[in-house]
Amino acid sequence: MKRLLLVLLALFCGAAYAQAPSRIRGTITKMDGNLMSVKTREGKNVQITLAPDATVSVAKKATLAELQDKYVGVTSQEKNGKLVAVEVHAIPPAAPSGHMDWDLKPKSKMTNANLVSEAKVTGGNEITMKYKDGEQKILVPAKTPVVKFEPGTLADLKKGEHIFTIAKMESEGKYATGRVSVSKGGVKPPQ
Length: 191
Hints:
By secondary structure, the protein is mostly beta strands. The chain has a domain at about 65-145. About 10% of the residues lie in helices and about 60% in strands. It contains two helices and twelve strands; from the N terminus they run H-E-E-E-H-E-E-E-E-E-E-E-E-E. The protein has helices spanning about 1-20, 65, and strands at about 20-30, 35-40, 45-60, 70-80, 80-90, 100, 110-120, 125-130, 135-140, 145-150, 160-170, 175-180. Strands 1, 2, 3, 4, 5, 6, 7, 8, 9, 10, 11 and 12 form a twelve-stranded mixed β-sheet that branches. It is elongated, with a radius of gyration of 19 Å. The chain starts with a helix and ends in a 9-residue tail after the last strand.
């Protein structure tokens, strides 16, 4: 009986794990209707089925001033005891707020919050991000990508463009999503 319970628990945990959303970053290799083939940054080939009402957002270069008082996501890494931005991007209000681990680079963090202030400092600009339970001060070097988004269409999802999506795994190598961010004119979505 104990062994059966362990097997059932392992199966349940495996099924729950398979249902967890995945962050997919990569390059479109093919579009076929609402089926997008992507080569991930890890080198895997995956297929992503887009929901009939999928939202497409096109990346566009922005400035910190344009994101002032907006809900923003900042990917950062700690250097010399200070958080240093890797990228800054506008995000939808539905994204969870706070300061959390992120999988872009080793030991990277994601801060989703309101960008409440910006000040010139040595090495770039220091921004203050406020969320419900705290705030973070993050250095944004001059060459850090700063991105906002414009509404797009399925026509923006072209071979060779970079995408970012959070998708649900349906089976090995096959995913489904209702929202995709895509590059345009060399401006990439958040990674």
